Amino acid sequence: MSKHFVPVVWSSNRKVRLLLLAAIGLAFWADRGRAQPSGERVQSLDTAAIITPHSDDWPSYGLDYKEQRFSPLEQIDRSNVSSLGLAWHFDADYTRGIEATPIVVDGIMYVTGSWSVVYALDAKTGKLLWKFDPQVPKSVGASTCCDVVNRGVAVYEGKVIFGALDTRLFALDAKTGAKLWETLTADRTKGDYTMTGAPRVANGRVFIGNGGAEFGVRGYVSAYAAESGELLWRFFTVPGNPADAPEDELHARAAKTWQGEWWKNGGGGTVWDSIVYDSELDRLYIGTGNGSPWNRRQRGSGGGDNLFVSSVIALEPATGKYIWHYQEVPGETWDYTATQTIMLAEMPWQGSARKVLWHAPKNGFFYIIDRTNGKLLSAEPYSKQNWAKGYDLETGRPIFNPDADWTQTDKPVTVIPGHGGAHNWHPMAYSPQTRFVYIPEQEYPIQFQRRAHSGVHHNVFNVGTQLVAATPDSPLLLEAFTHETFKGALLAWDPFAQRVAFRVQHPSVGNGGILATAGGLVFQGIEGTASLDAYDAKNGEKLWSFDTQETPVAPAVSYVVDGEQYIAIGVGRGGTVGLFAASDRPLPASGRFMAWKLGGKATLPAPSVPVSYGDPPPPSDQQREAAARGEETFRAMCVRCHGLKGASNRRVPDLRRLPRAYYDMFESVVLDGAADAAGMPGFGHVLSREQVADIKAYVLVEAEIDRNLRAQPKWWVDLKLSFYRLFAKVVAPLM
Question: Which of 57, 106, 358, 385 is least buried, going by the fewest C-beta atoms within 10 A?
Answer without folding.
Answer: 106
